[in-house]
Amino acid sequence: MSFRIGGITVEGAPVMLAPMAGVTDLPFRIIARRMGSALSYTEMLSDMALTHGSRKSRAMLMLDPAEKPAVVQLAGSRPEVMADAAVMVEEAGACAVDINMGCPMQKITSNGEGAALMKDPERAERIIRAVRSAVKVPVTVKIRKGWDEHTENYLDFAVMCEEAGADALAIHARTRKQFYSGEADWDAIARLKERLSVTVIGNGDVRCAEDAVRMMERTGCDAVMIGQGALGYPWIFREAKSLIESGEQVPPPSLDELFGVAAEHLDAMISHFGEASACLKMRKHLSWYVKGLRQATDAKDRINTLCTGEEMHAFLGEYRSFLESRGDGTGGIRRIRLEGVRFRV
């Protein structure tokens, strides 16, 4: 099974990890790829920071063979700077350049970037044309339905993107005003698919493997991008891949696998960022890994006090032992039901 983005063929089931600031760093991207994500998307990189030599942005541009094919997402509002940044992305080995025109965060939109570009389609078009002219790899664009319910211009905007040279469009089927509230409008994805000839990637409210299949069946989209549904549960890609390719459900991860991957993730983060920074970043990841487990609230409280890799590994071992002592996890972690027993270690 495969799908195309411009001139490249992406092998595997058409499900992929969404770019998420502060989340889709290299260690997590590698785990998601191994679980079945067809593409690896970086966090959003600022074009200005990248072209001005920001050490942090240059580090975020680092790609690993284990995650490829990899797409780098850029954010900016100046066509010439975006073009220069896109050249750097291509030279780094990315298989495609993604232009962020959907980020709803105030610090991004206040600069005329992200979703703010949907209010300025002329500038957005100049950016896409500049990037398209600067690189040979495919160029993709990620958008929303519009700024708010009064300006849902995604259809005309997407047609403009295609005519300007975009090889694929990903749409988060909410407006900027909604951020992540309410329900994603999957019908908007279907309407977009009907209007475009390039690849359409659907995004929004895919919380389980079954949702990925339903989105493809309901909208006709070419691929599905998964964001929050993958937080603490990269197995969503393995499960979606199996359902799409064979119609078969795979068993959820066991406690052994859950805690093994969490420990692997922790070690990879320490290796990549250094212990102090990694442990701060891992607090949110570990909190996502334990979501839905017995006494997860107590576990999260404990996680937020941990400062070293040793402490985090010790916590994982103690929490796993606690769950095993209660007989949890025999049918997979997603089948565990909470009971009124407090977890203390």
What does this 3D model show about the protein?
The chain folds into 2 domains: 2-246, TIM Barrel (Alpha-Beta Barrel); 255-335, Orthogonal Bundle (Non-ribosomal Peptide Synthetase Peptidyl Carrier Protein, Chain A), CATH 1.10.1200. It is 45% helix and 14% strand. The chain has helices at 26-35, 47-51, 55-60, 79-91, 106-109, 121-134, 154-164, 186-195, 209-219, 235-246, 255-273, 275-289, 296-303, 309-325, and strands spanning 2-5, 8-11, 15-17, 40-46, 70-75, 96-101, 139-144, 168-172, 199-203, 223-226. It has an 8-stranded parallel β-sheet with strand order 3-10-9-8-7-6-5-4. Helix 4 (79-91) packs parallel to helix 6, helix 9 packs across helix 10 and helix 11 (255-273) runs antiparallel to helix 14. It is globular and about 60 Å long. It starts with a strand and ends in a 20-residue tail after the last helix. Mean pLDDT is 94; it is low at 334-345.
Strand order, largest beta sheet: 3-10-9-8-7-6-5-4
Q: If classified by CATH, what would the architecture of the largest domain be?
A: Alpha-Beta Barrel
Beta-strand portion reads: 5-15%
- CATH C-level class of the largest domain: Alpha Beta
DSSP summary, beta strand count:
10
Using only C-alpha atoms, the radius of gyration works out to 20 Å
Largest sheet: 8 strands, parallel
Q: Estimate percent helicity.
A: 40-55%
SS-derived structural category = alpha/beta
Low-confidence stretches: 334-345
Instruction: Please give the count of helices.
Output: 14
Give the assembly state of these chains: single chain
> And the CATH topology of the largest domain?
TIM Barrel
Query: What general form does the structure show?
Result: globular
For the record, give the distance between the C-alpha atoms at the N and C termini, rounded to a whole number. 46 Å
Round the mean pLDDT to the nearest integer and report it: 94
Q: What is the N-to-C succession of helices and strands?
A: EEEHEHHEHEHHEHEHEHEHHHHH
